[in-house]
Specification:
single chain; alpha/beta; globular; Rossmann fold
């Protein structure tokens, strides 16, 4: 499953990342709209707010900033470059997509950050870094792509320095119990999301918490920000079908067209409570 899945993910992001950047910018993740779900916040402003709110939530202090950051699943480097610049830190981003890594390097050069921020094609389940390499492991919406969530968090723990922080935000499904498993219609809904966005599976936030604990993370905290981020998909849908976007979709190919046409899968997933936006924080 692994190699085939990685090829699908690579192909998906190789084809769609240029269009995403052109229409929606460099940050390939949700925005933060607060508990009231304030749609009036501009999309990019909301995406920056998500990064800042995550740093605040994880108690990353400006007077003791991280100096060596790894962005696991970096896209075209939106978070990596932001964090590197924000903290005047060394930052490394990894992605399965050569197109994303190349564009991220270009963007680092454009911003004059190429000496402190770098990108490479690498597998998050087998990171090419020594143990204890980073004081901040940042993973923003890449956990859902991982075919082995335990191995993923084990690798995050391995490369993290003692005393360093993990900040993980990822798509989850709703909490379940022995008496309340996912329904047939929910499973069907999830399978469509998996197919369109090249995901192996998602798990609940409590399952992530248990895995983080088993990996050895300390001071673990978890939170559900579904309400705070859910408006993002309606904002994206509203802007997905202008002439520029439609032209770009045709050029990017059928898989990208299908993912755009399926944006409402995520919007409906949030509305019915099936899709949840989970946060895990911890230290080593």
């Amino acid at each position: 499953m692994g190699n085939e899945l990685y090829q699908q993910i690579r192909k998906f992001y190789d084809a769609s990342s240029g269009l995403w950047e052109k229409i929606w910018g460099e940050h390939m993740h949700h925005g933060y709209y607060g508990r009231s779900g304030n749609y009036k916040v501009e999309r990019r402003e909301a995406q920056i707010a998500l990064i800042e709110e995550l740093l605040l939530w994880a108690d990353v202090k400006v007077n003791n900033p991280p100096q060596n950051i790894i962005d696991v699943g970096c896209g075209i480097g939106g978070s990596t470059l932001y964090l590197g610049n924000r903290f005047n830190a060394n930052a490394k981003g990894i992605t399965l997509s050569p197109v994303q890594a190349s564009r991220a390097k270009e963007r680092a050069k454009e911003q004059g950050l190429e000496t402190q921020v770098d990108f490479e094609v690498a597998n998050a389940l087998k990171m090419p870094f020594e143990d204890n390499s980073f004081d901040l492991v940042w993973s923003l919406e890449s956990g859902e792509h991982m075919p082995d969530k335990t191995k993923f968090l084990q690798e995050c723990y391995r490369v993290l320095q003692p005393g360093g922080k993990l900040i993980l935000a990822t798509w989850c499904h709703r909490e379940t119990s022995v008496l309340g498993e996912l329904t047939t219609s929910e499973i069907k809904h999830l399978k469509e999301i998996y197919r369109v966005y090249c995901l192996p599976y998602v798990i609940s936030l409590s399952e992530y918490f248990a895995i983080a604990k088993s990996c050895g993370f300390k001071h673990i905290k978890a939170d559900d920000w579904s309400t705070q981020v859910a408006p993002f998909w309606d904002v994206v849908i509203d802007s997905a079908f202008n002439l520029e976007a439609i032209t770009g979709l045709v050029e990017a190919g059928w898989q990208t067209i299908e993912s755009a046409l399926s944006l409402n899968l995520m919007s409906r997933g949030y509305s019915c409570g099936l899709i949840r936006y989970g946060l895990i924080g911890g230290t080593k």
